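Two proteins were folded this term; both appear here.
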Amino acid sequence: MTVPFKLVSPAKLIFEGDAELVIAVTTEGEEGILPRHAPFLAALKPGVLRANIVENGASRRLELATGEGFMQALPDRVTVLVDRAVAFEEVDVAQTRAELAETADPAVAGFARAKLQLTGHH
């Protein structure tokens, strides 16, 4: 069983398709959304978004470091809006560590930590 899932940033549509499960980091902690979820709206903080998506009949894991945003779940769809998102292969660990060391902005620091968490370099 799947639910239509859309992940959007101001720059682009990152993913649109079907998901079996979407897990995002809300301001209250991780929240998992399954198909037919009760209506739900949450603010997101920087973290790693994970989703089990279905493409061409096969299930795979989508993992992205995301910035701040919002997640809306309705029984028939899940929409995630984030200010930015990067995949594992887009993360430059050395540059991200430098960003983390140089910033005083909590949102920038949170996104940098999420990118490091995504790559396994906590």
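Next, the second protein.
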Amino acid sequence: MEWNGQGLVLGVRRHGETSAILELMTRDHGRYLGLVRGGRSRKMRPVLQPGNLVNVVWRARLDEHLGYYQIEPELLRAASIMENRSSLFCVQILAAHLRLLPERESFSRMFNAANIILDHAHIPQISTHLMIHFEIALLEALGFGLSLDKCVVSGSTEELVWVSPKSGCAVSRSEGEPWADKLLRLPERILRGASDEFAEDQMQEISVDDLKAGLALTGHFLERNVYIPRALQAPDERARLIGELSKFES
């Protein structure tokens, strides 16, 4: 068995005296483990750092085996990530989120989104906006997608300002006003989408209050539908990222 492609380094652990077991999120094959011979060498250690993008060849006698990686660096982000708190939090959050997905199943959308976030991780206002969209996509990939395009009560697409904490559906201002204290806030700017092509200046216009509300929204559904059923806790770095955002409050 053999395949090749791009992989985002999520983590690495020691194996024996000289080798390492590498965990990658790959574009076409999902989250995959493999053994890297000489992975603890002086040459390979800087390459096998979380956040780096690598080109890989994976080989094994049988598909269910751990297999071996042959690694070539593509984009080494780790040094710049280590210099920035926001970037460190982002790479750790992304690794924790991607580990929620089933192994060896393709999630190319999640792979692409993670790399876009890491390319902008040094700017908290931008990376947080992207992270909110990443978490919405993650919920969808796990079978807990939110319905944010129209009001669950009236069907209106106007003034969608809340989300039901039970159904995950949007609620318009007029329909939700009597129960506003029981609904989650849906920042209007968060709905505008974050695709592969976006304007950084537009991203920076989003207020810290809206970004925090977006994280509270996705955090609620991750906690209820993913973390609690799996007896897990949200990564600590998620709260630390919120703390970083507070530095930009006016």
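The radius of gyration is 20 Å. Helices lie at 78-82, 85-98, 108-119, 124-141, 173-176, 200-204, 208-227, 236-246. These notes refer to the second protein only.
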